[in-house]
Design a protein that fits this description.
This protein is mainly α. The chain contains ten helices and no strands. The longest helix is centred in the first third of the chain and has 31 residues, at about 30-60. Mean pLDDT is about 80; it is low at about 95-100.
Length: about 250
């Protein structure tokens, strides 16, 4: 089997590990604590991976491209992703079915599914282009996929009391990575050997990560307990630094 596809499948399904953590929480009173910590972890890691890994690598790959081309690509991508997230955020304010907690999980599932598809594309293409770089990107994806799984599972599970529904929603988000990998192998195969194409993919994923962190995660943690935010940020930073040292 294709090595890029294998790593993408592994990265995607680490999202399911969030279920194990969620199902072991005994009381609703711990929801806010663990959600704040996991969101804070995800926030700092999305920002750091984007700014310190993906953007520098993309600029190095695209250094011979005209500045205007790269700038326009960034602006168009930013606008499309921003509009999507604003629509998602507006949907999450509707108090229907199971209420705000349920819709936090639903919107998180939709956002992270669309977030995982380009991640699958980039991890597959990058691995097949450069195994070491692919391992680094995939490791970063695996690490932040765990709190992403918690972000979906916690609100779904505690609003519906259904392990089955929580599992289905996390699974839907998890398949985004393999879907992206299949997409890159069968629909983008003629572009895989184009180095500049990888650079543009890096930019797209970096923008998606930053906007999810700033537009979706930050508003949910800014008014929470500062102690839990600090714990989450610290854990995320430590994991990121370990990842940088190992890979």
């Amino acid at each position: 089997m294709n090595k890029g596809l294998i790593l993408s499948i592994i990265a995607g399904f680490t999202t399911l590990s969030g279920l194990l953590f969620t199902f072991n929480i005994k009381s609703n009173k711990n929801i806010d604590k663990y959600l704040t910590i996991s969101l804070s972890m995800s926030f700092i890691m999305l920002i750091l991976i984007s700014l310190l890994d993906l953007f520098p690598e993309s600029l190095k790959i695209l250094q011979n491209k005209p500045f205007l081309d790269v700038f326009l690509y960034i602006m168009v991508n930013y606008t499309i992703i921003y509009i999507f997230l604003k629509i998602s955020h507006k949907m999450s304010k509707n108090k229907v079915e199971k209420g705000k907690l349920y819709f936090l999980g639903v919107i998180s599932m939709i956002s992270l599914l669309l977030h995982n598809i380009p991640e699958g594309i980039i991890s597959c293409i990058t691995t097949n282009y450069n195994l070491n770089l692919g391992l680094k990107i995939t490791t970063s994806i695996i690490i932040h996929n765990i709190p992403e799984g918690i972000l979906i599972a916690l609100p779904i599970y505690f609003s519906t009391k259904s392990r089955k529904r929580a599992s289905i929603y996390v699974f839907i988000a998890a398949i985004g990575e393999p879907l992206g990998a299949f997409f890159s192998l069968f629909l983008l195969k003629n572009k895989i050997n184009d180095v500049s194409y990888i650079g543009y993919i890096f930019i797209s994923v970096a923008l998606l990560m930053i906007l999810i962190a700033v537009e979706e995660i930050f508003p949910k943690i800014k008014d929470k307990n500062k102690k839990y935010i600090t714990v989450g940020l610290s854990i995320g930073l430590i994991i990121f630094l370990i990842n940088k040292l190992i890979i």
